[in-house]
Amino acid sequence: MKIKLTKAIQWLEKADFEAKVVIAENHDKALDPAPSSDSSQYQTLSPDSCHFHGQSLSSPKECSAIFETHGPSITYLRHKSAEIKLTHPKGPRTRFKVFGSPGTPGLGEKWAFGYERDVNDPNRGRYPHQGNGGGRAVATETKSGSQSNPGKETGRSGSGLYFSPIPISAKQFWSSIPSDADILVTHTPPYGHCDLGVVRGSDGSDDGPVPPKTGEIGEEEAETETDQHLGCHSLLQCLSVVRPRLHVCGHVHRARGAERIRWSPVPPPSSHIPMEMKADGETGWIESTTEKWTDPSPEPKSGKISLVDLTGRGCGGESGKLDWDVDVDTVISESTGGREGRKETCVVNCAILASNYPHVGGKRYHKPVIVDLELPVCEESQNY
């Protein structure tokens, strides 16, 4: 696993992009710290946990430490945020805040970075192992620099994310998304958006081993089952409060695509607002419309790019521009935290894998999704 991770990081470093944001996902058990009870040391993997998909797992501490040696173009996020600065003279010269998390709801002990769904999540209780969080502890945060912060073990790429013996709610888990985030990068999609898939795996997604009947069910038979929304309901609630420009996700392979959510303020009186729509004293906006993206070049073998144009410069004109007014957004309001201008969010499921484990007939792949997004241009006089 260490060799594969090292090769992946080296490949990313060579990619001709000024910045690359990296998160782990539910298959990356070798990156899941799983600390011991005193939270100061990485836990030794049990014999049953030392193998995953038939492969031996390396030490999570050693694998996470690999990110200490990566180049400056890579930002590894484990449930934390970072400010990305693009300073190349021929580039856009901009800065933006991105929050990244590998957390995925409804996972059992077999998978990495799991947390328990909240009681109001439509998927809670649908799968037997989810009633008590799958028997594992739930992810939470510590303050940077504290003794219980495993981030100090992994250098600059670390985080305050660890698995607490005291479960927290999914709402609390996602409340750490900063209110001024421009972009979210999460493994799980939000509930109801780019998350339709077939429930087959023990992790409550379409990404898992096919359950046996009289024998193994092939993918063709499994795909005749009814699609269900597999995303996180609590993440959607936090999304309605922060309303970032862009939310990039994956996990549900067959849900690859994009949707633009148009937000509207919740009408008064606020006393009638359900409690689940509130986060940290703030009320999330409601979804007024959702527009699905049509891939201009869906064929995997096509040489044309799959472009999501949010700039208004494409064939859609101004109607295609994301409604996200930075000038209005600077107006501070006690009720919205200065986010009045955030009227749209584009959710993009950019899953590369098109097939699911055990990949009957071999792995199949989607084309990468390219997003053209306007960001504020920094003046040359500004310090980076």
What can you tell me about this protein's structure?
- The structure is a single chain.
- By secondary structure, the protein is an alpha/beta fold.
- It is 11% helix and 21% strand.
- It has helices at residues 2-14, 60-65, 170-174, 219-222, 233-242, 326-329; strands at residues 20-22, 51-52, 55-56, 74-76, 80-86, 94-101, 104-105, 114-115, 138-141, 161-164, 183-186, 196-197, 228-229, 246-249, 257-264, 278-279, 282-283, 286-292, 306-309, 344-349, 369-372.
- The protein has a seven-stranded mixed sheet, with no helix packed on it. A two-stranded parallel ribbon has the order 1-4. Strands 2-3 form a two-stranded antiparallel ribbon.
- It is globular.
- The two termini are 36 Å apart.
Q: Count every beta strand, where a strand is a DSSP E run of 2 or more residues.
A: 21
How much strand?
15-25%
Order of helices and strands: HEEEHEEEEEEEHEEHEHEEEEEEHEE
Report how far the terminal alpha carbons are from each other: 36 Å
Give the helix tally: 6
Question: Structural class, from helix and strand content?
Answer: alpha/beta
User: Which consecutive residue ranges, at least 5 long each, have pLDDT under 50?
Assistant: 35-45, 128-166, 207-224, 328-337
Residue-averaged pLDDT:
74
Rg for CA atoms: 21 Å
Q: Give helix % range.
A: 10-25%
Which term fits the overall shape? globular
Largest sheet: 7 strands, mixed
How do the strands of the widest beta sheet line up side by side? 5-6-11-14-20-15-18
What is the subunit arrangement here? single chain
